[in-house]
Amino acid sequence: LPNFVYVVIDGIANTQYLNSSCKDVVASFFLKGDFIGEINAICGQKYMFDAVAQSDMELVKIPADIFIERMKTDFQLVQSMVQSQNNRINYLEGFALANSSLPVYEKILLFLCCFHAREDYCKTFNKDFLAAYIGADVRSINRVLKTMSEKGFIRTGNGKIFIIDYSNLITEAVTCGIDS
Question: How distant is the alpha carbon of residue 106 from its chain centre?
Answer without folding.
Answer: 18
